[in-house]
Design a protein that fits this description.
Elements (H helix, E strand, L loop, with lengths): L2 H16 L4 H4 L24 H4 L3 H33 L8 H26 L9 H13 L2 H23 L6 H28 L5 H20 L14 H9 L2 H10 L3 H7 L8 H6 L16
Helix pairs in contact: 1-5, 1-8, 4-5, 4-7, 5-8, 7-8, 7-9
Bound molecules: fe (ii) ion (2 copies).
Length: 305
């Protein structure tokens, strides 16, 4: 371990001791959902700006925001569960005395509280269970066994930094449900430390890898980008407002506003991943299909990948 990563972990441990939340007591779970408030920012929704969006009434758009946020929160929950397992494996043979090991355990502690908080939000909203498609759940089980080191931290950053941008906007938007904003605020505060840790770990391991290892992690990172961005909104959410899921999903993935929104969430993490050498030329097509790269691919994008 480098001196830098040791001091980063120590600093993060001190910050965790000073600023941590317990959603059981720090969230006002009695806050009612207000009928005229959004569950996420409308301009970030997958159909925003399309003729299909224009065909919906304001009430339908708000109802769709309830389902779309439920799908995104469930995916966030799933990614956190994968990350916790990855972090536990990372420290399996580590020195328990080190600040790095202790911070990794502290982060797992944060994530268990977050995942419980997300589950509680979904239950309170009485929302259907979306989450990853069954096929992706199976792939996730396999991924879980191979994601280590650079891939683990790149995956963490892909989810945490993009969600950070999305949630910072939510917490300042008074059109959005107070409960959603409160949950976003708690998550943003604790995730900032996770981002610092993952960036530090990634910067530490990248220069130590062989060419073959680098190629492997580049390929895994590209796959994680497409999965984490393209599976956020389950097609079934569209049925909640009477839209055909397949047709609406097709409209969403070809919606330039939605592609631009995804690219906007990636504006901070992408330059860092490129700088670290995780975005390789052979995978540029996959990165573009994830919409994280600012230049959108020409023509229609297949909904099958
Ligand atoms: Fe989290
Ligand atoms: Fe996190």
């Amino acid at each position: 371990m480098t001196v830098t990563s040791k001091s980063v972990s120590t600093r993060l441990l001190n910050s965790s001791a000073r600023h941590s939340y317990d959603p059981d007591v720090d969230v006002d779970w009695d806050l009612p959902f207000e009928p005229d408030k959004w569950f996420m920012a409308p301009q970030r929704m997958s159909l925003f700006g399309t003729p299909m969006w224009e065909s919906l009434s304001e009430d339908q758009r708000i109802e769709l925001s309830r389902h779309e946020v439920a799908s995104i929160v469930h995916m966030g929950w799933w990614f956190e569960v994968l990350l916790m397992q990855g972090l536990l494996r990372e420290i399996y043979q580590s020195d328990p005395r080190s600040a790095r090991t202790q911070y990794a355990l502290t982060e797992i502690g944060d994530e268990t509280r977050h995942s419980t908080m997300f589950g509680r939000v979904l239950a309170k909203g009485d929302l259907p269970r979306y989450g990853p498609p069954r096929q992706l759940q199976r792939v996730g089980t396999l991924f879980n066994l191979v994601i280590r080191g650079a891939s683990l931290y790149a995956g963490a950053l892909l989810v945490e930094e993009t969600q950070d941008r999305w949630q910072r906007e939510i917490m300042h938007d008074e059109r959005i449900q107070p409960l959603t904003r409160m949950v976003a605020r708690i998550h943003v505060t604790e995730e900032a430390r996770h981002v610092t840790f993952a960036r530090d770990e990634l910067a530490r391991v990248m220069p130590t890898m062989s060419r073959a290892e680098r190629t492997w992690h580049q390929a895994i990172a590209a796959q994680m980008a497409i999965v984490s961005m393209r599976c956020l909104v389950h097609p079934r959410v569209y049925a909640s407002v009477g839209l055909d899921p397949r047709e609406a999903h097709e409209v969403a993935v070809n919606n330039p506003h939605y592609r631009a929104s995804i690219a906007w969430t990636g504006e901070k993490v992408m330059p860092f991943l490129m700088e670290q050498g995780l975005v390789a030329k052979p995978h540029l097509g996959i990165w573009q299909k994830s919409f994280l790269l600012p230049q959108p691919p020409k023509g229609k994008v297949s909904t099958t990948s």
